[in-house]
């Protein structure tokens, strides 16, 4: 169990605790949810473009980098932060939620110019607030049923997109996104700039049955984190579990049933890797 | 090696309507942002294009696909 689950989960995972789902009462009573939502709907593109341009070149400098890194961290404490989840956990979250809405992805709008790429699922009251910002919702918001939402996530994961859950801020569950490196700002911040507090690895890690593997390479072509290598010598896939984010995309493409997921705390090597 | 990308925002069409350059960038180094601070209930029409120098690898894809000639990549 990660630190977020211990603090906010009440014995469950933080994103499965229904107490944390944003309702109208919670939205009206908690100032920090409104602040985080404002930052997403209002300032996201400016932050990606102007603030990132200012801050990122200095992150690997010895002294100034530490100061800027701490400042960026304090911004992200108030903003949305997320955790990668496998498909099954995304479905469990949708089972707990009672309403889903599909909206355009802010990252893809900002970095690919696509304002109609609908890849972000939010629940409950948040999207009604998002409607008040027409630039965020310029292509409209689709209110869909829970079954349609589950289908959407399943289609995306089969395509190779990574699903992740975002807190507005943690522990208040805001929504599920279907992300892709490099056009996802959270994955990019983590993989390119080492800002590992923006998005966490999932509660699971890959479990590979090497006897069943035939080295077809389907999992290799789907992995966004470079954790898989196909050994030409033995003709099998090899998994680097230290690089594995536990997104579970590779488990759905394997035709030999050789890949599964196990809880992270059962694997001593990556127990403390988040 | 030094990579310079000059973006002419006057020649550029609205990047969230065209956006061809952004979609061919292998590192997603381009960013677009509204020209004014957003107000509640107001749509911003003019969006500006910028890029993060650290992420640019100087491949020149964007220069090739831009029909308006708004982007110039020079590698020296």
Biggest sheet of chain A, open or closed, and with what strands and sense?
7 strands, mixed
Q: List the helices and strands of chain B in order.
A: EHEEHE
Helix/strand structural class of chain B? alpha+beta
Percent in strands of chain B:
25-35%
Mean pLDDT of chain B: 89
Question: Could you characterize the architecture of this molecule?
Answer:
The complex is a heterodimer of chains A (274) and B (76). Chain A is α+β, with helices and mostly antiparallel strands and 274 residues long. Chain A has 2 domains: 3-200, no CATH class; 204-264, Alpha-Beta Plaits. In chain A, 40% of the residues lie in helices and 19% in strands. Chain A has helices at 3-8, 24-29, 31-55, 62-78, 87-96, 106-112, 126-130, 146-159, 185-193, 218-222, 249-253; strands spanning 81-84, 100-104, 118-123, 142-144, 162-167, 173-179, 199-200, 204-208, 228-231, 236-239, 259-263. The longest helix of chain A has 25 residues, at 31-55. The termini of chain A are close together. The A-B interface holds A 41-43, 45-46, 48-50, 52-53, 56-57, 109-115, 132-135, 138, 182-183, 188, 192 and B 15-19, 22-23, 26-28, 30-34, 37-38, 40-44, 48, 50, 52-55.
Give the topology:
The complex is a heterodimer of chains A (274) and B (76).
Chain A: H1 3-8, H2 24-29, H3 31-55, H4 62-78, E1 81-84, H5 87-96, E2 100-104, H6 106-112, E3 118-123, H7 126-130, E4 142-144, H8 146-159, E5 162-167, E6 173-179, H9 185-193, E7 199-200, E8 204-208, H10 218-222, E9 228-231, E10 236-239, H11 249-253, E11 259-263
Parallel strand pairs in A: 1-7
Antiparallel strand pairs in A: 1-5, 2-3, 2-4, 3-6, 5-6, 8-11, 9-10
Helix pairs in contact in A: 3-4, 3-6, 5-8
Chain B: E1 3-7, H1 20-23, E2 30-34, E3 47-51, H2 61-65, E4 71-75
Antiparallel strand pairs in B: 1-4, 2-3
